[in-house]
Amino acid sequence: MAMSPTLQECLRSKGSRYEVVRHPYSHSSIETAAAAHIPGDRLAKTVLLEDEHGYVAAVLPSTYAVQLSEFWSKTGRRLALATEVELRELFKDCDAGAVPPICMAYGMKTYLESSLAGQPDVYFEAGDHEELIHMEADQFLALMGDAERAHFARRMRGLGSGRA
Questions:
Q1: Is residue 162 over pLDDT 60?
Q2: Which of 15, 36, 48, 61 could cross-link 23 (Cys pair, CB 3.0–4.6 Å)?
Q3: Closest C-alpha among 98, 138, 118 to residue 16
Q4: What would the pLDDT profile of 63-114 be if each residue is shown by its tens digit?
Q5: Where are the domains of the chain?
């Protein structure tokens, strides 16, 4: 699979400037940062959460983990991680686990971790496990313009900036 058609259309419609970065196949965001030789703090990962009212996406650096208690207080919802089966159903044009951060284009409320918004440039999954999209910060923030910025994540123990 190549770039997600939903992502491709979103990038086109917003006039985004970006480059595609190919890397060896990887299974996790930490592996992806290492394989692509990029700082983990600049690689955006998407975490999908759900409750009885539906799905919410959290976009954060690959070196961070969502703090559910902080996320609950920001959203007023008791969200839990969505299952892999649900991810496949919602993101049919993406490989499992390779969801781009543009969840607004899939009809989901999206939250952007503030620490990611402060990076000079950002990388993120293109919809498969072998390509990343690389954008300057201003382009990424314009693409994520409908996402709500908030602080809801913390760096995982034992991970520095994640520079590979």
A1: no
A2: 36
A3: 138
A4: 999 999 999 999 999 999 998 888 889 999 999 889 999 999 999 999 999 9
A5: 5-155
DSSP classification of residue 104:
G
d(CA 26, CA 139): 25
Distance CA 6, CA 99 (A): 11
Question: Which CATH superfamily hosts domain 5-155?
Answer: YbaK/aminoacyl-tRNA synthetase-associated domain (3.90.960.10)
Residue 70 near residue 58, CB atoms below 8 Å? no
When the pLDDT of each residue in the chain is averaged and rounded to a whole number, the result is: 92
